[in-house]
Amino acid sequence: MANNAPARIWVMRAAFPALALVIMFFHLLPLDTLPSRWAPPDLLLALVMAWSMRRPDYVPTVLIALTFLLADLLFQRPPGLMALLVVLACSFLKSQVQPHRETAFIGEWVTVAMTITAVTLLNRLILAVLGVVQPSLGLILIQMVATLLIYPLVALASQSLLGVRKLSPAEAEALGSR
């Protein structure tokens, strides 16, 4: 029941943007000046998906939107597009929390994989329709696959290090009554 305490929820709501800022900081560090032949996984996307599936009360929609809008601006992506797609994806995942509460991790991973694939393809399609210059399709697919492969590690780290576990039925009922 301690995971439902309002103080714990607010601490985790503050921890998410702090973790996001750390991820953005390390993503922006110029560790290598040569162009890379592969794209690293999108840890920020994997983190928000893991938290949305496991504890939707820790990542409210406004927090997701503001975090990804900042990421759009810092990563020099079209402002708001990725933020919108991630907000829609996380809203979908939050609506899927009830059916996946009792399922194994594989079911969660498949749902997240389909969602990440949809976000990637929709982003690519919208940018193509608008005529925005994009990286090669190979790099985008490498990043998508790397993000899908890193998701179990992000979920494990979130659960073991930060205590972001799936809601039990009793915790969900207590949250629903608030």
TrEMBL record:
UniProt superkingdom: Bacteria
InterPro entries in alphabetical order: Cell_shape_determining_MreD
Protein name (Swiss-Prot/TrEMBL): Rod shape-determining protein MreD
Main localization of the protein described in the UniProt heading: membrane
Compartment(s) of residence: Cell membrane
Alphabetical UniProt keywords: Cell membrane, Cell shape, Membrane, Transmembrane, Transmembrane helix
Naturally occurring in which organism (per UniProt): Phaeobacter piscinae
Residue intervals passing through the bilayer: 9-29, 81-97, 109-130, 136-157
Membrane topology: Multi-pass membrane protein
Family designation: Belongs to the MreD family.
